[in-house]
Amino acid sequence: MRILLVNEARMGGGGVESYLAALVPELRARRHEVALLYANTRAEQGPTDVNVDPSWSVRDLGLPPAIDAARAWRPDVCFAHNMRYLEIDEAIVGQWPTIKMMHAYAGACLSGHKAFSFPAAVACPRACNAGCLVYFLPRRCGRLRPDVMVTQYRWARRQQALLPRYDGVVVASEHMRGEFGRYGAARIATIPLFTAGPAASGGVRDIDVAFFGRLTPLKGPDLLIEALAHASRALARPLRALVAGDGPLRPDLVARTSASGADVQIDVPGWLHAAERDAALARTSVLAVPSRWPEPFGLVGLEAARFGVPSVAFDTGGIRTWLSDGVNGLLVPPSEGPRGFGDTLARALGDERRLAALSANAREASARFSAAAHIDALEQVLQQWRRPGTC
Q1: Using CA atoms, how far apart are residues 151 and 245, in angstroms rounded to an integer?
Q2: Do residues 291 and 311 make contact, with C-beta atoms less than 8 angstroms apart?
Q3: Closest C-alpha to 184, from 152, 200, 162
Q4: 317 Ramachandran zone, left/alpha/beta (phi>0; psi -120 to 50)
Q5: How far apart are the first and last CA of the chain?
Q6: What are the tens digits of pLDDT across the range 222-252?
C-alpha cells in the first residue's frame, strides 16, 4: 500500500512522534510506501524525527498546495494522528480513505485531561457535550478562562463531527474504544501499542521504584512521594526511588524529597534521554504508574516490562490492556489513594519470589505486545477499511 501519514509535527518530543518514528521502518520492511503530510514548519526542531520522504509541510506550502502535492503521490489510504488544525483533517477526509488513530482524548474532553482537578484530581466519566460547560470552571478541568473554555468546546464539537466521516478509528485500548464509541464513529478497532526493541537484560536492581513522565498532578508523582514513605515504613527499610521527568510540580517535588528523611532517597533528575532511561530501567525493581487521570494506554509500563520491570499502577483507563493484576504487575483501586499505593509497593518489594515471578511475566507481556503483532492488525484494518474504487 501507499500510506500517507498525517500528523501535526514531523519532529517532536511526544509519544505520537515516537510511535510514528517506530512505525515507519516497520511499514517499509513490509514493502509499504510511506509519505507524510504534516502541519508544522519543516524548520521545527525536536528530539524525535519522523524520518519520511516524501513529506509536505502545510505551514510552509499552504494547505491547497500541500494537498495537491500529496495527491500527486497517489496514496491508497491516509493514516491520521494528532492534529490541532482540523482544517487539515477536513481536507483529507474529502480526498482519500482516512483512518484516524486517537492517541488521547481529542474530541472526548474539552481540555484533553479527562479529569477534574478540584476539589481533588479524579478521572471524569462524562461524555463530552454541552454539559461540560457547567463543570469546566468549577471543577477546574482546564484553564480558568471562559474564553478558553468556549474555544475548546467548539474545537471538540468540530472534532466530534469528523468522527463519522473517517473511514475508521483506531485506539489502543478497550477503554478508549468505549470513549469514542459515544460519538458516532463508523468503525473502531482496538490495536494495542508496542515496544520497540527486543527484551533487555537487567543489572543490579539498586533502584527500588522508578517513575517516568510529566510531573503534573494528573500523573501523580506527588502522590507517589507520600506512597513511598508509607511503603518504607511498611517494609521497615530504606527505599531508593527515581522520579524522572519535568513539569510544574518539579520544584515542589525537589523540595519535598530533600526533606523526606533518610528512609526514602529520591532522585528527581528531569527528563532522561532514551539511553539514560533504559539504563535506569535496567537497575529498577518496580515501575510506579500512579496516574489520577485515565491513561489511554500507559505505554511506559510496556517499556519497563522489556527490562523485566513489573508495574504497580492505579486501575485507570487502558492500563488493564497490558497489566494483568498479580501476573505482570499489581493494580491499585484509585479510591485507596497514596496509602493503598504504598501498601501495594510494599507487597511487590517485600516478597522476592513474587517479585521474580512478576518480573518474568513482565518480559512475556512485553514480547506479546510486539511490533509484528501491531503491524499485522494495522495492515488488516488499513486494507479492509479502504473504500473500494477510491484509489
Answers
A1: 30
A2: no
A3: 162
A4: left
A5: 11
A6: 999 999 999 999 999 999 999 999 999 999 9
pLDDT at 63: 97
pLDDT digits (tens, 9 = 90+) for 44-94: 887 788 989 999 999 999 999 999 999 999 999 999 999 999 999 999 998
Which neighbouring-strand residues pair with 148? none
**Cis amide prior to 54 (ω within 30 degrees):** yes
Q: Is 189 helix (H, G, I), strand (E, B) or coil?
A: strand
Q: Determine the Cα–Cα distance for residues 165 and 386; give it in Å rounded to an integer.
A: 13
Note whether 212 and 301 are within 8 A (CB).
no
Alpha-carbon span 328 to 349, nearest angstrom? 14
- 243, 224 in Cβ contact below 8 A? yes
Among 294, 301, 311, residue whose Cα is nearest residue 345: 311
Instruction: Count helices and strands (H / E) in the chain.
Output: 14, 17
Look at residue 209 in the predicted model and tell me its pLDDT.
98
Peptide bond into 119 cis (omega under 30): yes
As a dihedral over the C-alpha atoms of residue 237, residue 240, residue 246, residue 248, rounded to 10 degrees, the angle is: 20
The residue-averaged pLDDT of 5-29 equals 90
**pTM for this entry:** 0.90
